[in-house]
Amino acid sequence: MNLPCTNRIATDKPEKYATSCDFATLFTEEMSSLYQLSFVLTRSHHKAEQCFVAGAQASMNGAPVFKQWASSWARRMIVENAIRMIAPRPTSGNELAAPLELDSELTTVRDKNPAIASVLELADFERFTFVMSVLERYPDLDCAVLLACAPREIRDARTRALQQIAESSSNVDNFTPSPIEELSIDAGRA
User: Fold this and answer.
1) Is residue 163 within 8 Å of 128, Cβ to Cβ?
2) Which of 42, 47, 60, 143 has fewest C-beta within 10 Å?
3) CATH architecture type of domain 90-190
């Protein structure tokens, strides 16, 4: 991937803010993790690519961000672009969201990685809530603001998602959630 960056005049003083070059480097070095986040949110390789590219552009052309926040900001841009693309909405009342059928592009995921498949099988709102609140560790209030809903809807959707994932794991031999952990926020990041 060839991302453009703007060269700045070198100074003796270190830059406080991430530059477009910093983001280009970040999106290259963390490509696998950022793409996987895009894919799990969008459930489509085509949409994941669009989400990834839009996230890179938004990061490089957006508001100034402190260098130490650049990775978190890039992930946030991926999440925000996925929300715009998919527009997940809460289910009404106590009704459980029906699991979505995986299309032919995604059926092999179930065989290769049942942990990821169990997340992909979640309905849109539950999937976004699970990824954002559990894997990315966003607070409920941040999830509610980004998904334009009440914090209670976030808690309810997360409970439904965890229940469905638990049911999926009990139906699969040798279910190991370790691949999903790749999506979770690194311990060293804020």
Assistant:
1) no
2) 47
3) Orthogonal Bundle (1.10)
